[in-house]
């Protein structure tokens, strides 16, 4: 039973009571009869005293009249009472402190409810454990008192009193079996009321109940309880009586342990109290000294406590906020959703942490780092909310500063390399996703080091700041200008529609930087070189693009500074125009921008017009006449050559037919067919269509092919050529001598003429020694070759009389070139018909 229970739960409700005038004899009689060890003397319903077996030892057994005295004269008083609600633990304490063996348990009105003895308390404390560990010997507190059997009662009582014991062994004079006398036997004598026996032997109890001194106290106690006796005799190993062990001996041995335990319990209780007081004190000190604001709210969310830091941070004193809702601190910066989530988190996790913008009493809004804890009581009910927060204004500012330092150049305020790289990463990802181009432009100020060295870093810095401003003015929103360090800048154009846009920007940047800088009365001239790299053409990664833009920038410097270069040389300046051309080339056909010019061929024997070559021209709205040498390769790349070629073929056939129709001497028209067109298009079909459409007889059409056509897929090509020849169309090999056509191929091809490339014709005139030049040898060889193969030889690019003479001397069949005519319009060509086109032979 726990020591917290009230003593009323263990009280012996059966009490023996009597009035104060009851005789000792009568009281003893009742006690002996009921085997009670005490009787309470009650007067007017209240206990006034108690008489116990122990008190029997005070009776004079030589004077039996004393038995008839009133109990009030011999009882112990005043009586010790204890309230029935006192805890068992506290009751134990009082037994200890007051040195008594019984308390009368009383109710609120003081009426006796029963008796509680020390043994009752002690035995309720789970003592078996102690009893089992101790032997009987250790419980023998006093030497054994042995009284001779023939001793008078009075003398026996005197011996007990002298030994301060309540029992003794009685040894018969005849050496018979020993017995025992106890207080209880004396009460019995008194209660019997007759004559007092003469010798103690007559009232001794027999047989003597014995136990070995090596037995445990627990077996002693069990024996006492079993036999309903209060004493047991103890024998040693030899069987000799060594003492009497009483219930109270057991109790007192337990008492030691019990008191120890009580002491311990008391000490623990005191220490815990002290500790918690100390903890509380400490907690209060910490809360008060904390630099963090602390606010405790009731489960209803009303403020019940704030610490000084709270007041300092918010500007509100405790009195101002006590009992208020913490929403007086709300800044209005967070929406309902924010607070809903906060409460939800508090609900299931018991804690919420985060950044909150709150408002001070002054109205100022500030950021705080807030932790809210839900505090619950033992039953799990919310008892409080505790909020701890710190002002993070400074931290946020520092973060911002660090972020700026980390991402921006201190001198110019431009993004630095890191931020630029970040943005480039993002721009690349974006361009990739949308299948777009982007450009980065690497630029560095030419000879900047010289400014630094001659005018000092201060001026150098100002030039950098000014330059960065000018760069900023050149770009559009969304572009990034960054400083990579030193005098190196970089510009990111995240969405590039046309590469020209990058080139235009580069030009703008160059001219902006070129304008004089006026710094400290110095007029400074700075130029810049720009390198451009385009994603994805020049690189797919940040590193590649920066590296290639850098390379292009160095190339611009090498080419004389103050200029820009694209990384891919194919995209550079000239070829850059080609890009512009590309887009307009796409529409050139539909916009009817192509036209044909014609150049005559003259028969070196007759001097008459022997044929006409059609040459395409592109009238570009901005660029003017564009040479086919420029746009034909482009058209081939763009897959436009088929359409353009078909248009040329049809237009040429039509033109030729119209000359015929005019009644002019019929000539053959030569049309250039690009190698690609020949390879990929169905040339015979287109030719047939053009002839049909124009009505030109096939043998008035000649196709000029380059050597390269003959060198690939020889069989197929030969087949196509045979087809064309069967139709009646003539074939000539253009620019002959520049390729590497092998003779064996040539033999197998159904062709009609070789056109000697104009570069050889041009070389005929080297150093004026016509016949000695290398060109002359090549030209002669080609003419011979042609004739050996039964082909006609035609010389292109004939510009002079001498060239013409040389060619005629070598047996060349026809010539073509400025000597005879420049390429002219269809109408203008008419004047060339029907007359001698060769200058008269010299002498
Ligand atoms: P090509 O077929 O060898 O054409 C002759 C080129 O030499 C023409 O240049 C012509 O203007 C030029 N030329 C004529 N006489 C002289 C001269 O005495 N001295 C010099 N220096 N040059 C002379 P053009 O018209 O610019 O054509 C260049 C090339 O473009 C042509 O070379 C031809 O390969 C190609 N081409 C021209 N028109 C067409 C066409 O309609 N279709 C295709 N596929 N290619 C064409
Ligand atoms: Mg040609
Ligand atoms: Mg040619």
Q: What would a concise description of this structure say?
A:
Helices cover 42% and strands 23% of the residues. By secondary structure, the protein is of the alpha/beta class.
How is the quaternary structure best described?
Answer: single chain
The rough form would be described as rod-shaped
Q: Let me know the average pLDDT.
A: 86
- How helical, in percent, are the residues? 40-55%
Distance between the termini: 155 Å
- By DSSP (H or I, 4+ residues per run), the number of helices equals 31
The profile of the biggest β sheet is: 8 strands, mixed, barrel
The rounded Rg comes to 65 Å
Going by helix content, strand content and strand pairing, the class is alpha/beta
What ranges have pLDDT less than 50 throughout 5 or more consecutive residues? none
Give the beta-strand count. 33
Strand order in space, largest sheet: 25-26-28-29-30-31-32-33
Strand content: 15-25%
Which compounds are bound in this model? Answer: ligand C2E, magnesium ion
Output the keywords:
binds magnesium ion; 8-stranded mixed β-barrel; 31 helices; 5-stranded antiparallel β-sheet; 843 residues; rod-shaped; binds ligand C2E
Give a structural overview:
The chain is of the alpha/beta class. Helices cover 42% and strands 23% of the residues. An eight-stranded mixed barrel has the order 25-26-28-29-30-31-32-33, surrounded by four helices. The chain has a five-stranded antiparallel beta sheet with strand order 14-13-17-16-15. A hairpin with a 2-residue loop joins strand 21 (517-519) and strand 22 (522-524). Bound molecules: ligand C2E and magnesium ion (2 copies). Ligand C2E binds at residues 599, 614-616, 627-629, 632, 645, 648, 672-674, 704, 734-735, 758, 796-799, 817-818, 823.
């Amino acid at each position: 039973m726990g020591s917290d229970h009230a003593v009323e739960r263990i009280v012996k409700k059966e009490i023996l009571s009597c009035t104060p005038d009851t005789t000792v004899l009568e009281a003893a009689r009742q006690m002996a009869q009921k085997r009670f060890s005490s009787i309470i003397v009650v007067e007017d319903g209240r206990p006034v005293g108690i008489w116990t077996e122990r008190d029997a030892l005070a009776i004079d057994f030589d004077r039996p009249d004393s038995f008839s005295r009133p109990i009030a004269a011999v009882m112990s008083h005043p009586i010790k009472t204890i309230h029935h609600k006192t805890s068992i633990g506290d009751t134990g304490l009082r037994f200890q402190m007051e040195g008594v063996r019984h308390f009368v348990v009383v109710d609120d009105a003081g009426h006796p409810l029963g008796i509680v003895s020390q043994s009752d308390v002690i035995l309720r404390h789970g003592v078996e454990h102690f009893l089992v560990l101790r032997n009987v010997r250790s419980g023998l507190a006093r030497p054994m008192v042995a009284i001779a059997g023939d001793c008078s009662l009075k003398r026996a009582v005197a011996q007990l009193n002298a030994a301060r014991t309540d029992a003794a062994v009685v040894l018969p004079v005849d050496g018979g079996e020993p017995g025992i006398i106890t207080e209880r036997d004396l009460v019995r004598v008194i209660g019997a009321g007759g004559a007092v026996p003469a010798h103690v032997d007559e009232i001794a109890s027999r047989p003597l109940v014995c136990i070995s001194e090596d037995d445990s106290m627990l077996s002693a106690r069990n024996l006492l309880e079993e036999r309903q006796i209060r004493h047991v005799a103890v024998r040693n190993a030899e069987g000799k009586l060594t003492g009497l062990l009483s219930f109270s001996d057991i109790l007192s041995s337990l008492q030691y342990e019990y008191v120890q335990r009580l002491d311990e319990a008391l000490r623990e209780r005191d220490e815990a109290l002290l500790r918690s007081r100390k903890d509380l004190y400490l907690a209060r000190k910490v809360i008060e000294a904390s630099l963090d604001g602390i606010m405790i709210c009731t489960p209803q969310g009303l403020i019940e406590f704030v610490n000084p830091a709270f007041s300092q941070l918010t500007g509100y004193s405790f009195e101002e906020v006590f009992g208020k809702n913490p929403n007086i601190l709300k800044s209005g910066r967070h929406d309902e959703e924010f607070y809903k989530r906060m409460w939800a988190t508090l609900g299931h996790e018991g804690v919420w942490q985060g950044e909150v913008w709150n408002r001070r009493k002054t109205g100022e809004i500030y950021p705080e780092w807030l932790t809210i804890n839900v505090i619950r009581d033992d039953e799990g009910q919310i008892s409080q909310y505790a909020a701890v927060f710190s002002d993070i204004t400074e931290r946020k500012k520092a973060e911002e500063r660090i972020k700026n330092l980390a991402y921006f150049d201190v001198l110019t305020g431009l993004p630095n390399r890191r931020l630029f790289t970040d943005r480039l990463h993002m721009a690349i990802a974006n361009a990739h996703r949308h299948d777009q181009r982007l450009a980065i432009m690497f630029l560095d100020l030419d000879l900047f080091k010289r400014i630094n060295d001659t005018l000092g870093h201060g001026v150098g810095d100002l030039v950098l700041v000014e330059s960065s401003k000018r760069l900023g003015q050149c770009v559009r929103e969304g572009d990034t200008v960054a400083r990579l360090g030193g005098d190196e800048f970089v510009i990111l154009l995240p969405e590039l529609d046309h590469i020209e846009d990058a080139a235009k920007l580069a030009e703008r940047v160059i001219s902006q930087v070129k304008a004089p800088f006026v710094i400290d009365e110095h007029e400074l001239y700075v130029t810049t070189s720009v390198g451009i790299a385009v994603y994805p053409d020049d690189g797919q990664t940040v590193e590649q693009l920066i590296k290639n833009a850098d390379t292009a920038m160095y190339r611009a410097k090498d080419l004389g500074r103050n200029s820009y270069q694209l990384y891919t040389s194919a995209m550079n300046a000239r070829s850059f125009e080609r890009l512009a051309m590309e887009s307009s080339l796409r529409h050139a056909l539909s916009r009817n921008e192509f036209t044909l010019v014609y150049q005559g061929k003259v028969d070196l024997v007759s001097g008459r017009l022997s044929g006409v070559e059609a040459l395409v021209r592109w009238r570009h709205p901005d660029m003017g006449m564009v040479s086919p040498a420029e746009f034909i390769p482009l058209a081939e790349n763009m897959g436009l050559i088929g359409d353009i070629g078909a248009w040329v073929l049809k237009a040429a056939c039509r033109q030729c037919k119209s000359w015929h129709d005019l009644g002019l001497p019929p000539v053959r028209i030569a049309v250039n067919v690009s190698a690609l067109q020949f390879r990929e298009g169905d040339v015979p079909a287109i030719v047939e269509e053009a002839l049909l459409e124009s009505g030109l007889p096939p043998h008035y059409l000649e196709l000029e092919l380059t050597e390269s056509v003959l060198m690939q897929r020889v069989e197929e090509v030969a087949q196509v050529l045979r087809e064309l020849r069967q139709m009646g169309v003539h074939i000539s090999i253009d620019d002959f001598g520049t390729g590497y056509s092998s003779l064996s191929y040539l033999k197998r091809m159904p062709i009609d003429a070789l056109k000697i490339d104009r570069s050889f014709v041009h070389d005929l005139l080297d150093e004026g020694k016509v016949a000695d030049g290398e060109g002359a040898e090549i030209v002669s060889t080609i003419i011979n070759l042609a004739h050996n193969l039964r082909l006609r030889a035609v010389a292109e690019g004939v510009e002079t009389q001498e060239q013409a003479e040389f060619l005629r001397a070598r047996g060349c069949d026809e010539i073509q070139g400025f000597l005879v005519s420049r390429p002219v319009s269809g109408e203008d060509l008419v004047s060339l018909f029907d007359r001698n086109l060769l200058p008269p032979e010299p002498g």
